[in-house]
Structure prediction request, 113 residues.
Amino acid sequence: MSRKVARCRARVSELVDELAIGAALRLRTDSDDIRPVVEAVVAYLVEEYPSQDLYIPASASEPQYPVAEIRAAMQGGKSIRAICREFRMSRRTLYAVIDAEEAREPATEQRAA
Prediction:
């Protein structure tokens, strides 16, 4: 058995372990009880989609960014690149977050008046 095959099997085994734990937490059961089902699903994916990276979308809820901290950093003269790196976001996301927050502020001010 080559090293590549051994590494691949180890990654699949790690994936099965992680998925079994995650499924057990969500279903409120023992991970050993659900492991055969998880192993079957992973085996199916390996057979059906060999050597492919599967796209796993992010959850439906949008991440919450600390807009006040981002604005403070911008007003403090920090570079956009450094801010993006600090908050782990792209430049496009940074501007979208700031624009979305600015769009919400006038609506909030109008309600208060």
User: Anything to note?
Assistant: The radius of gyration is 22 Å. Residues 3-27 form the longest helix (25 residues). The helical segments are 3-27, 31-48, 67-75, 80-87, 91-112.
